[in-house]
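Shape matters. Shown next:

___
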Amino acid sequence: MALEFRQGWGWLVLAALTVSTIGDEITLLTLMFRTAEGSSAYGVPTLLIAELLPGLIAAPWAGRLIDRRDAALVLIVVSALQAVVIAIVAAIPPMTLVGAAVLSLLFTISSAATFALIPVLSGALAHDAGAREQLSRNRP
């Protein structure tokens, strides 16, 4: 993988991935509360199926996509698409089920990309820690 982080950026990327993952989960919970408020008794189970099934089916292809493409670039593009889908669902409430299904696909791809970046990220974090240790040894 040709991805390299500038010195000190490993922690920034780790923080961004953590915030993104928390945001993904908050989005799914928000969709569930929104659906429970204004739909029939089968609304929430239907939403949960729409959130689970597409990602479950697409997982093998998401892994292949990440293996063949630059994981960092895929993660950036998918994150932008997630933001667009969330904005559409927020603006057009009847699109909640379709949006949940699309988000499920995008979450699957972003999770695969994040897992693919872990070795690169751990190397960057180890490099940052080594550089800090070296600086602390050189100080009088």
Residues 29 and 35 are 10 Å apart (CA to CA). The longest helix spans residues 96-138.
